Hints:
This protein is mainly beta. It has one domain. About 0% of the residues lie in helices and about 40% in strands. The strands form 2 sheets. Strands 1, 2, 4, 6, 8, 10, 11, 12 and 13 form a 9-stranded mixed β-sheet that branches. Strands 3-5-7-9-14 form a 5-stranded parallel β-sheet, with no helix packed on it. It starts with 10 loop residues before the first strand and ends with a strand.
Amino acid sequence: MDYSNSQNGVSIDLPHNLASLGDAAGDSLSNIEGVNGSPNADTIGVGANQVAYGGGGVDQLFAYGNGAKFVYKAFSDAPVGGAVELIVMDGVPHTTSITIDLSAIDPDGNAGNGNGTFVWNQNIHDVYEAGSLRHHITADGPNGTQMQFDIFTGDFPENINITYIL
């Protein structure tokens, strides 16, 4: 499903076949494996082995199963400052593994030399609160651009696996 041209944010829940807001309002979903969000603030939930690309805007992305994958194509997909891109791992059963795919982003902004290297900012920190983990990440890109997102686990599982594709 592609909502990249929606003038308003969309709300999509693939595991439960629900769609509302923006161009998604009134859509019927069934057996969808992936979704492209709008350039605005979206709420997107994906299950096991489903893929979400939130697009621009500050999105709330939900993982409702192990193997959920979140794709970022530009630093502007998760900008620094103000509200922060949020990935919530709180599925049933508890989601303990997700993939964050950053491979479409050229970290140094120079397409002529191939992909550069991400620099993980020293501000990476984990905060444990009320039985949960909030993992805050900032990645530096070209000319001082950054991307930032929080990964929040509901009832914190014993083991968490976050795979980054760079």
